[in-house]
Amino acid sequence: MIQMTLIQIDNYGPWTVTPRPRTESDLQILQAELFADVQRQFATKKGLVFFTRFDNMLAVTNGINKEDHFRIQRSIMNRYPITISMGVGSAETPYEAQKKATEALQKAGGAQSEERREILAVDSLVSPENSFVQMAHIDINGVTESLTDIIPAFDTNFLVNKAQHYLMTKLIKKGALLFFIGGDNFMSPCNNLSTEDLTDILNELDEEIDIKFKAGVGRSDNAEDSAYLADLGLEIIREGKNKDLVSVLETDYLETL
Amino acid sequence: MIQMTLIQIDNYGPWTVTPRPRTESDLQILQAELFADVQRQFATKKGLVFFTRFDNMLAVTNGINKEDHFRIQRSIMNRYPITISMGVGSAETPYEAQKKATEALQKAGGAQSEERREILAVDSLVSPENSFVQMAHIDINGVTESLTDIIPAFDTNFLVNKAQHYLMTKLIKKGALLFFIGGDNFMSPCNNLSTEDLTDILNELDEEIDIKFKAGVGRSDNAEDSAYLADLGLEIIREGKNKDLVSVLETDYLETL
Amino acid sequence: MIQMTLIQIDNYGPWTVTPRPRTESDLQILQAELFADVQRQFATKKGLVFFTRFDNMLAVTNGINKEDHFRIQRSIMNRYPITISMGVGSAETPYEAQKKATEALQKAGGAQSEERREILAVDSLVSPENSFVQMAHIDINGVTESLTDIIPAFDTNFLVNKAQHYLMTKLIKKGALLFFIGGDNFMSPCNNLSTEDLTDILNELDEEIDIKFKAGVGRSDNAEDSAYLADLGLEIIREGKNKDLVSVLETDYLETL
Amino acid sequence: MIQMTLIQIDNYGPWTVTPRPRTESDLQILQAELFADVQRQFATKKGLVFFTRFDNMLAVTNGINKEDHFRIQRSIMNRYPITISMGVGSAETPYEAQKKATEALQKAGGAQSEERREILAVDSLVSPENSFVQMAHIDINGVTESLTDIIPAFDTNFLVNKAQHYLMTKLIKKGALLFFIGGDNFMSPCNNLSTEDLTDILNELDEEIDIKFKAGVGRSDNAEDSAYLADLGLEIIREGKNKDLVSVLETDYLETL
């Protein structure tokens, strides 16, 4: 079971234009620092946050309980001009987990409600014995050599965004999510996605949009370790030690390091 | 003429996995804080930075000279474990300007070169009398009401990413760029794009992918004021004072506030 | 027993002037952000860090184990141009605890050694059953009314610094520490200091340097709760509900809120 | 003439305990980040901010005009739960300049007034032709070797604080200010203080409290360059190239680097 948290800024849209539109650079800084801040706090307990839309962030939070969530909300309230609400849900697939998390929060009021403030709506938490997170770290082959150092920066950006869109389209059908994590890298919480299905998706995209991907997959009971194992799996392919498109590592691999 | 700066982390890819993959949450925090940091520094001189791919950021930098750029590089070198190189270019369209900025930097060495470090490659700067920035702030109609408060968070994210992909595809053909700035909002540096062409693009997307957009457009001699005018233009549509899809404001509108 | 951690930047002095002196504003930002950063990480586990000399920080860390410390070190190494070493000690008094923490780290090498890097030297950790933290939050009576709003800002600063110096001088003899926490506020980890002794010290300072203080004292098994109880104790005096100079609250007071 | 700015958080004391005391770690993070933030913004225009009491900060701001101050205030208002007011003054000595800055702000209302918010009270600005800043960077001889690596961390802290108190006491009589900048380092804005007077003060302290200091002094038309020249002056003594206690560098030294 994977546990996901939806982190939503309360009544953010109206705030950004009250009394008149706030300076765009300030909003960009506020959003980036808020993301960095909740990331650091969730990360001390082995969670991992994705910036998503910035005013709505999704996080994998196995092992992080209700009081932990509450303390993060309080910490943000004390240091920012805005507050955050959260919904928490758990399920067999990441898609279902974020769906439950969203629904729990939606029941408590709208994102632009003036009344809703600092809600912590927990649908369900994963117990230690059921905790399982599968993460795939997917990147595009040879971006620096074939794109960054050759074509204009925005064209590379366009291609990476295109890759994201098509990856998302395929993965969501399998109950997996996909988040851009910078450069040419994507992280996919993907419990229940088989190695065969992931390989098929990468092969299909090579044919359909002519972009070649590879992926490391990690499996453990928390987001941090699974992401790390996924990174290590990707390194194994980069070093040529695995000729497949997908390289999978289980949690006991950590003990061999 | 618009001036754009490409900000690139030196040799970042290899650094992230040396001696072994660094904790993903730390990389996410580093990237977000670096973005916030350069944003704050460019913003003190009315520039505006877009996070783009985080390891490669694009900025509109009219009015910001070579020494300003150098001071930002030095400041980052003193406080981060990585350094940044920059390319600067100016042209009639944003696409051409970032192309020149990229080429200037590419000539100085590869993004993953171990030798290249803290390069400041200036192709061209815009002079005060030629300085002109047109920005469009584009958003999706009714996202909170129709999506955020109703469907799962990731589905909204998927739709926003799809909107970005299709907007990018149309705008790039007109020499305009597009950046996601959070929520359901996009900012498009778009010198030379006519109101008619932008309106046509928004209408086409409504038909082709069934997503309804609106846009405020601002024009001035710097990124900050143009973005602010674009925000104000969008507010005018939101308030129903302009029934068109696109609302344009010139720099002299600022004096009426 | 109180547990204290000494956090020391490795080889910082030489780094600040290599190859030539680094911009002072950058160093100030680096130091402040490093302090904020370790604070946030220790705070997620109810610790409390004092900025002390910035390149050497002291923290009350009851309940925070070796792996927690290691994870904080790794997180700093991944995001800063410098690394940190730590010493951890526990004892009956804060003075003894920081002494043990310092000695543990000193044994591992000098602060300006080029070899010493990311040391975690643990002399002793407090077990949950022996964990006890007494904190006093001390402030100066009526600073805003009598100083901030009347005399020049630097004169107020001078007086607050003088108060700190004399408070430190008296408290250190009792095995208690004292840290400036902003405004006219000081926090004193002070296990083993009796209410009578603290009252005597405040009375003596009133006579000797003509500065009137008051103090809230909190007692619990961790830094966060004790500091909070100390804040509440101070509020009780401010509201006139306690006419003494010192107001003490035990951990069970938290349950009455 | 030196220009100084007093930066004061509006109504901060009451805010920290409303509705009940806020978590101490959050306040510490907020204060440190606010300091880092205004530092970065003033630093882009060659100013230098001292943390002072955190809720009241003093800055040397030669060359920074009214609009620059206003933009910093706006940027803080957009990203923090608190706002800041500022007073600006200029004079022959730093003491007089901060006195004027304080008085300008005090006239606009009290620090804990609920009405006063985002005031920018300018007594006087320094014109480019009259701009002059003298800075002394003072440190304690051999702190790492004789203290940090030998005695407990808090004892070193105590000694550094004592040094600060006695330095302040002497310097204020000469119209000079003194700020702790971390480690064993102090920065003193000291227009009008002669090299002889500074040398005398350091010699007196050696006799009176048995602490040996040395100082680099820099002179230019802005805070950044003067602080840098002061750093370089101190390096010259450290390297043994100047046997005096005080080493002075003028602005034209920068051209020789």
TrEMBL record, chains A, B, C, D:
Which Gene Ontology molecular function entries are recorded, alphabetically? GTP binding; GTP cyclohydrolase IIa activity
For this UniProt record, give its keywords in alphabetical order, as a comma-separated list.
Answer: GTP-binding, Hydrolase, Nucleotide-binding
* Catalysed reactions, as listed in the record: GTP + 3 H2O = 2-amino-5-formylamino-6-(5-phospho-D-ribosylamino)pyrimidin-4(3H)-one + 2 phosphate + 2 H(+)
Q: Which Pfam families match?
A: GCH_III
Source organism superkingdom: Archaea
- Protein EC: 3.5.4.29
- Keyword Zinc carried by entry: no
Q: Which family does it belong to?
A: Belongs to the archaeal-type GTP cyclohydrolase family.
Say what the protein does.
Catalyzes the formation of 2-amino-5-formylamino-6-ribofuranosylamino-4(3H)-pyrimidinone ribonucleotide monophosphate and inorganic phosphate from GTP. Also has an independent pyrophosphate phosphohydrolase activity.
HAMAP family under this entry? GTP_cyclohydro_3
What name does the UniProt record give this protein?
A: GTP cyclohydrolase III
